[in-house]
């Protein structure tokens, strides 16, 4: 049976073939080999639909061994550190409050129309006295996991991320402990199938350099080369991300934050859905990640 995945645009298919080593004629066989290996692992119980597995293959440029390692690490870390990497609810409490601030969003138009997805985290929009770093990371984690399943631009071309510290305080920064930074770094590089193409820091504040120097050595040399610190110089950011690809709040044309948040907030009432309900626990890995695992 033909793989059950969304067809790519011609532009994305060209990138997938030339840069990710995707061979449409071999896609069914590649997915079968990956799924067969997963089924042979007694400890591992991940999602196995084609659209999900192809994200790991694409994120690993079709190296089956790397894809095996990533999906194993992905579920291992979610099981070992649920407070960091599992999303318990996307509709209640602080998760919804943080999301509604528009602090963490993915912009609707990718860079240069067909390039990487652009994400922004505006740290100062989330009051440090009300929300902690882990609660914010829950929102970022949910957005990432939805992108794995639904965002072809993020899967093929990766993500360009902007950390905007305008309005942030030292209290925001110092919530990021060395242990926390290490966990997020390992998850990003060793488990997440989405490839971070660049990380930009803008409107940096006092204390940032200390935090930056703490987590930078934890990253691979490749990832270190993709970090860009712009201070308060917006023109340095727009040299790499032209202004039109930023949201209206920055003077750009890539949607406005209230519109982006509202588009997500329209949502669904799952109690009214006809037929089989969507498996949100499977999507966000709340339960059933592993049949048996000894991680200590």
From TrEMBL:
PROSITE patterns: CRAL_TRIO. InterPro entries: CRAL-TRIO_dom, CRAL-TRIO_dom_sf, CRAL/TRIO_N_dom_sf. Pfam families: CRAL_TRIO. One of its GO terms (molecular function) is phosphatidylinositol bisphosphate binding. GO terms for cellular component: membrane. Residues 92-258 form the CRAL-TRIO domain. PANTHER family: ALPHA-TOCOPHEROL TRANSFER PROTEIN-RELATED, CRAL-TRIO DOMAIN-CONTAINING PROTEIN-RELATED. This is CRAL-TRIO domain-containing protein. It comes from Drosophila gunungcola (fruit fly).
């Amino acid at each position: 049976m033909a793989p059950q995945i969304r067809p790519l645009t011609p532009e994305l298919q060209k990138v997938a073939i030339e840069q990710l080593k995707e061979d449409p004629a071999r896609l069914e066989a590649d997915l079968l080999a990956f799924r067969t290996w997963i089924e042979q692992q007694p400890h591992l119980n991940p999602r196995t639909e084609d659209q999900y597995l192809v994200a790991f293959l694409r994120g690993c440029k079709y190296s089956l061994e790397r894809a095996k390692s990533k999906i194993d690490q992905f579920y291992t870390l979610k099981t070992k550190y649920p407070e960091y990497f599992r999303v318990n609810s996307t509709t209640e409490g602080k998760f919804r409050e943080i999301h509604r601030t528009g602090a963490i969003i993915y912009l609707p138009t990718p860079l240069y129309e067909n390039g990487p997805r652009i994400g922004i985290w505006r740290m100062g929009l989330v009051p440090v006295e009300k929300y902690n770093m882990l609660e914010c990371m829950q929102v970022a984690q949910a957005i990432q996991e939805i992108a794995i399943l639904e965002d072809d631009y993020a899967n093929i071309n990766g993500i360009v991320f902007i950390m905007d510290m305008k309005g942030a305080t030292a209290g925001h920064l110092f919530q990021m402990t060395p242990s926390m930074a290490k966990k997020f770094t390992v998850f990003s590089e060793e488990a997440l199938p989405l490839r971070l193409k660049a990380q930009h820091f803008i409107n940096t504040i006092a204390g940032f350099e200390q935090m930056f120097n703490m987590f930078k050595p934890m990253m691979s040399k490749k990832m270190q080369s993709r970090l860009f610190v712009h201070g308060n110089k917006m023109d340095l950011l727009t040299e790499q991300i032209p202004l039109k690809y930023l949201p209206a709040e920055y003077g750009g044309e890539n949607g406005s934050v209230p519109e982006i948040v509202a588009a997500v907030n329209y949502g669904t009432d799952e109690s009214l859905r006809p037929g089989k309900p969507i498996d949100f626990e499977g999507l966000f890995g709340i339960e059933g990640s592993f049949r048996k695992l000894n991680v200590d």
